[in-house]
Design brief:
Blueprint (H helix, E strand, L loop, with lengths): L1 E7 L2 E6 L11 E9 L2 H8 L9 E2 L4 E8 L11 E4 L9 H4 L25 E4 L2 H4 E3 L6 H5 L4 H11 L8 E5 L3 H10 L6 E6 L2 H10 L3 E4 L4 H8 L5 E6 L4 H10 E9 L11 H4 L5 E3 L8 H9 L9 E5 L4 H9 L1 H4 L3 E4 L20
Parallel strand pairs: 9-10, 9-12, 10-11, 12-13, 13-14, 15-16
Antiparallel strand pairs: 1-2, 1-4, 3-5, 3-7, 3-16, 5-6, 6-8
């Protein structure tokens, strides 16, 4: 099959690789019908995620059809249309029992496109399928569904829930890329008093207004002063960092009110200063997090009911074989206006898998 392979920092290729096969009784093989690119994939290519070994197929978000299942799989069967979650869950370890699947110690967590081959391919092996793929209702199309593999659960759980967004709050979202926009969309479910979006790109600020931001400001036009003016000098109740650079994180800590909350969602490749000389007296709570995807079934129901504007974030579509072009467009978002790109298209129809004996689940 064809797949998009990481060869080392700054080096990738769309190339032939062996088709995946069932390795464990908890696996499924999914034919990929739609896949997208995440900002985390760009961090991997830059070398910010050293755990990713050269030769790894990238990608951790997909929609497709189950082609084959291991003997222990009970929740899906061949022919089912499914969402492939960015997080795998063994279901047995302490963290899985607490619904903290991102911290799974039984071989799950964020493994696809990280520690094992991922979804930016014609086929993907998904471990721990009973908790890691979700059957899709017919009324949810691929463009909507694929955004529920990562960005909407991440925005909701790590931004909105960790930030304890509540009615009447002033929420500032720093970074109006896909994650930041999904934070705005899901935060509106909690009726904050106002949502302020901060970004450098005018096109992203326009998108932020479209999904529900009440005010927008360019990052180079004194956003801290705007927040101060709109809150009578108090500061924001909740500030979500959705960029992943030191400057934006430090800006967030300056904009939060005493007793407020900073929820970091961005993937950071460099250290950021924590100015405890200013923060220690302010009773500020700072949270970090990797998505757990425990909210995926809830978000799926809301998309099916038309309550979340998921596919409205898709700005570009490509065939699967146009992976390199799609990466180029996505990586130059300031020039191209890209938010989310979705790929899907021609594929071969059979999986040539090696015969392997089933064993106890592992990844």
């Amino acid at each position: 099959m064809k797949a998009f392979v990481f060869q080392g920092p700054g080096q990738t290729s769309w190339q032939d690789v062996p088709d995946p096969g069932i390795k464990d009784a908890a696996d499924v093989i999914v034919r990929v019908d739609a896949v997208t690119i995440c900002g985390t994939d760009l961090h991997i290519i830059k070398g910010d995620v050293p755990d990713v070994a050269p030769g790894t197929v990238l990608g951790h978000e997909a929609v497709g059809e189950v082609m084959e299942t291991g003997g222990d799989v009970r929740t899906v069967r061949p022919g089912d249309r499914v969402l492939v979650s960015c997080i795998a869950a063994c279901g047995r370890c302490r963290f899985c029992r607490e619904n903290r699947y991102g911290q799974c110690r039984g071989g799950g967590g964020w493994v696809l496109g990280h520690l094992v081959d991922g979804t930016q391919a014609e086929y993907v092996r998904v471990p721990f399928a009973d908790l890691s793929v979700h059957p899709l209702p017919s009324q949810v199309d691929n463009d909507d569904a694929v955004l529920l593999a990562d960005i909407f659960p991440t925005a909701y759980e790590v931004g909105v829930v960790n930030g304890h967004v509540g009615p009447g709050d002033t929420l500032v979202v720093v970074g109006a890329g896909p994650i930041g926009l999904a934070v705005i969309a899901t935060a509106r479910l909690y009726t904050p008093g106002r949502i302020i979006a901060v970004d450098l790109a005018a096109s992203r600020l326009t998108a932020a207004r479209a999904v529900g931001a009440d005010a927008t400001v360019s990052a180079d036009e004194e956003p801290e002063r705007l927040v101060e003016d709109l809150t009578d000098g108090l500061g924001a109740d909740v500030v979500v960092e959705a960029v992943g650079v030191p400057e934006s994180f430090e800006m967030c800590t300056r904009m939060v009110r005493p007793g407020g909350r900073v929820a970091n969602v961005g993937v950071h490749g460099k250290p950021a200063a924590l100015h405890l000389e200013d923060l220690w007296i302010k009773d500020v709570t700072i949270t970090t997090g990797l998505v757990d995807t425990h909210s995926t079934p809830l978000l799926l129901r809301m998309v099916a009911a038309g309550k979340l504007p998921a596919s409205g974030l898709v700005t570009h579509r490509f065939e699967l074989g146009q992976m390199e072009e799609a990466y180029d467009v996505f990586s130059r978002a300031a020039d191209t206006g890209a938010l989310k790109v979705v790929l899907g298209g021609p594929r071969h129809d059979a999986v040539d898998r090696p015969a392997e004996p089933l064993s106890a689940p592992r990844v």
